[in-house]
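Forwarding these from the shared drive since the link keeps breaking.
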Amino acid sequence: MSDQENREYTTDDILALPEGVRAELIDGKMYYMASPTMTHQRLIMGLSAQIYNHIREHDGGCQVFPAPFAVFIMNDKRNYFEPDIVVVCDPDKLDEAGCHGAPDWVIEIVSPSSKTMDYYKKAGKYAEAGVREYWIVDPAREAVVICRMEKGEEPVIYPFTEKLVSGVVDGLKLDIQAV
């Protein structure tokens, strides 16, 4: 193994990356992020807009942030994520640098290069950190896996044709087909 593979990275290394280079950090290991596809960006924009509009129209206390948005998930120097969409309901977790601690709701849009990260590595970290709800939107499968971690429920898979109910934002039903 090379020194690079054995090296433990920190959030300082992430913040020192050249402009335009994005990476995430899981337990001190750096994972570079590929540029998103048009479908990926369309889903982020459409879903973020639906969430934002619902919160705004219903005087919700949460805030939604699309990527890139820094999440210091464990509030340490060894873990740093840039989820596709985060919803944070505790304003004390937010500052200009990003979210410090677990967001209430995380949505990841699966890309061919991010499948293992989204389904396995991130899911475990999100659960460990205390994320209440985690959605994995998979355009290739036209399905969404909803993990309601706060309630300890088994993950449920829904087709894109169904309106999806948020367990974090009251009354919100997302329509992926409208995106």
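-- next protein --
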Amino acid sequence: MKLPSLKIGDLEAKIPIIQGGMGVGISMSGLAGAVAKTGAIGVISGLHLSLSDPKWGKDFRKANIEALRQEIRKARNIAPHGIIGVNILVAITEYATMVKTAIEEGIDIIISGAGLPLNLPEFVKGTRTKAIPIVSSARAAATICKSWVQKHDYVPDAIIVEGPKAGGHLGFKREELEHMDDYKLEDIVPQVIETVKPYEEQYGKPIPVIAAGGIFDGKDIAKFIKLGASGVQMATRFVATYECDASMAFKQAYVNAKKEDITIIKSPVGMPGRAIKNAFLEEVEKHAKTPDFCRYNCLKTCDPKKSPYCIAQALLNAQKGNLDEGFAFCGENVYRIDKIVHVDELINELVREAEENLQ
């Protein structure tokens, strides 16, 4: 059976896979453009794009906006006919400006999580840009749909449902992560599909539900398509590609990771996150690090006076290959990665496996 395409409004991706946005500097134009070129959806992370290139200077806010413009244009050059999205965290201080900039550049999709993007429709309404919130429960999906309809007469163009096996910052409390079987993505996805049905009927348009978090291979893709999802979002697998914008040392950390290396950390931004355990994180756990001054004022939820380290700087160090002064976020299944491949090889493998399992 052929894998169905993913339709989001007037956009159609022939391969129903969204490459998840990964900051700082992990999914930029190189990765997003390569993914979009295959017929899947490539996503640039809007978090600290400017930090990986010193040419932008020290006005980090202005630099990040200009870097976003450049990355969108570069991705378009790689995949002029592909679908390109930007992931912009609700929690960043320059959220509104970054969203407006992406729309000005004609971005196809804006994906928003790390909080409820309740004001996203006011920016995208009347444009060709699609608005996709990330949720971790049917309750959050209902809250967003209700708010968007009441305040903006708008429903999500799609919804990404992220389960507890995802990488990076997570939409679950630490105690919930200790009982992941109670919050299975396989259970949450059908609940969200049911939640959006009345809004689909009210507005006469489909609201595709996209499964994310812990999806590793084509068998997983087929499983969620059978459950009613219109597509999947995957991030961890795309790190181990030559086109990923991270350093080779960062990618190799994924290849070398063992199951016992995966850990849940308490992030300075106040959320739990999944990462690969290393000496840096062990020092943090031992309280061997003391609060540093704030360089970037990037996230609303971060209190520099209480933070044992600057997470932006730590993630940037890791992206550049300096894992002694940083760490790598990852998904639950990172230990299953055993090699680095090209994006088109990975996509072909995923499609073949998915179609075999859809029979």
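The two ends are 5 Å apart (CA to CA). The longest strand covers residues 130-135.

- D.
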